[in-house]
Specification:
- One of its GO terms (molecular function) is transferase activity.
- InterPro entries: DUF4290.
- Pfam families: DUF4290.
- By secondary structure, the chain is mainly alpha-helical.
- The chain has helices spanning 16-28, 32-49, 59-70, 86-90, 110-121, 126-147, 153-163, 180-217.
- α5 packs antiparallel against α6.
- The N and C termini lie far apart (89 Å).
């Protein structure tokens, strides 16, 4: 019995041992033309065995890169793409920046940051003041939904100032007026609840009327 530990190391295990053996056989061919012809066939086979790669951008280029890796960077063929160097493959990806909203501010969401950037770019005037009011009101609603408690306006003002890096400052105000959006939302919710209650009352009345009618017939 032959154990995997005694076999050739798989450079890319997701392609399996059959493709690895084909690559090794390709390297043993005598002429470059033969190796190139077989390499093209192997790349096509790799694409058939891994159809999900077709959804990726430049999947053919990636297949040829994978072929070169399977060959341990030792394959003399005419490739339609330049093979990657060892340095390129060993290069570490760039460090990803963490989202700006962290800690006490994560529940506000990215849309608030986008609105803040829009407000900062606007020139001073009624439009900018109105947008800042909308931002502050939405921040207050988000805070109340996430924390399940009432928040003082000065807390929202301080958060807005911090998120805008001191470029939007409402800390001079005493309180925050509710925006029309806030009122419209609440009014719609109240109307919905009132309509549902009226419907329930009507249904109960119909049930009592039907019950009384059936009792009279009996």
């Amino acid at each position: 019995m032959e154990y995997n530990t005694e076999r050739t190391h798989l450079q890319l295990p997701e392609y399996g041992r059959i493709i690895q053996q084909l690559v090794e056989r390709c390297k043993e061919l005598a002429t470059k033309e033969e190796r190139t012809e077989m390499a093209v066939a192997i790349v096509d086979f790799m694409g058939q065995r891994n159809p999900q790669l077709r959804d990726e951008e430049n999947f053919k280029h990636k297949l040829w890169d994978h072929l070169y890796i399977l060959a341990s960077h030792d394959l003399d063929v005419d490739s339609p793409y330049p093979f990657p160097t060892m340095e390129e493959l060993q290069e570490k990806p760039k460090r990803m920046d963490y989202p700006k909203l962290q800690g006490d501010f994560k529940f506000y969401g990215k849309s608030i940051l986008q609105l803040i950037e829009m407000a900062i770019k606007l020139e001073a005037g009624d439009e900018k003041d109105a947008l800042i009011q909308v931002i502050a009101n939405n921040m207050k609603k988000s805070y109340n939904v996430y924390n399940k408690e009432h928040v003082q306006d000065e807390v929202i003002f301080r958060h807005l100032k911090d998120l805008s890096e001191n470029r939007l400052d409402l800390t001079v105000l005493d309180s925050l007026e509710k925006s029309k959006i806030y009122y419209a939302t609440n009014r719609n919710n109240k109307n919905t609840g009132r309509n549902q209650q009226n419907q329930n009352n009507q249904n109960n009345q119909n049930k009592r009327r039907n019950f009384q009618n059936n009792k009279n017939r009996n």
